[in-house]
Amino acid sequence: SRQNPLWLYKRRQMQSKGSSSMVSSMVFRTRISSLLISMFATFASFYVAGRLWQDAENRVYLIKELDRITGLGQSAISVDDTLKIIACREQHKKLSALEMDLAAARQEGFTSKTSSDTDGAVSKRRPLVVIGVLTRFGRKNNRDAIRKAWMGSGATLKKLENEKGIVSRFVIGRSANRGDSLDRSIDDEYRQTNDLMILDQVEAPGELPKKAEMFFALAADRWDAEFYAKVNDDVYVNIDALGATLTSHIDKRRVYIGCMKSGEVFSEPSHKWYEPDWWKFGDKKSMNSSFGASNRYFRHASGEMYVISGALAKFISINRSLLRTYAH
């Protein structure tokens, strides 16, 4: 049978409206999806940028905190925090040196082993070790013997610093009677040899631990070395062997090298090695029987010679006003 034309027209009109509605719905959904994706991308960008900014702010804060604490000398920070700060500053120095080497390589066609300052002067490389030879009044013969044996003097001393990166200085304090003949003799010797580090501290046997602490602190402030060594003025150092040993440990940040021991703590005032703070080292009854019936010092290196890494020396320098020393 033949269909009614009016009915066909209405049917086609309804189909056309339905198609238009579906197309509009799809377009609307597509716009919403695009909007959500854009919002997500925007939030992600803000999040990443915020994390990067926070990381940068933390590094700046750590550096400022180190500068503040170093200047005041009144607050202590942990070893971990100190090492993080030191690592951040060392990375900055290495990056600056690499940038200067790269600029020199582009101009000269090779990579230079030394970096140049802005005025064209060649800067010295970082010392491998700073050796402090602890000495005292009346020991000039010992110092002269060391100068002849391994330390050198004058041009030889400078050559040791420049070629092998080993800085050596005799460490001595001041007389209890400031300005007396002892002080004058040391000042005269310094003017002749220029190899003395004179501390603003009274030279006395009971002050040896504080003397060593002050040496590490001042040496870390004056030289940015990989290691710092304390040596007595009757020890003859094999420079080549020392350099080879320290080079093998240069990648370690926490190094304490020496002849380790745990010496006895004596509580009798009449004893030669009397320790006024003997009671801080535990109860005799609770000590391990292998140590004997006496208190023991914390495990430490024998005083004749020992080495610590640069990070530990900087830790001593930062917290020097709060560190505790014991008699022996």
UniProtKB/TrEMBL annotation:
The highest taxon in the source lineage is Eukaryota
**What is the membrane topology noted in the UniProt record heading this document?**
Single-pass type II membrane protein
Enzyme Commission numbers on file: 2.4.1.-
* Named cofactor requirement(s): Mn(2+)
Q: Which Gene3D superfamilies match?
A: 3.90.550.50
Q: What is its main location?
A: Golgi
Q: In which pathway does it act?
A: Protein modification; protein glycosylation
Location of the protein in the cell:
Golgi apparatus membrane
Occurrences of domain DUF4094 (ranges): 31-107
This chain belongs to the protein called: Hexosyltransferase
The record lists the organism as Theobroma cacao (Cacao)
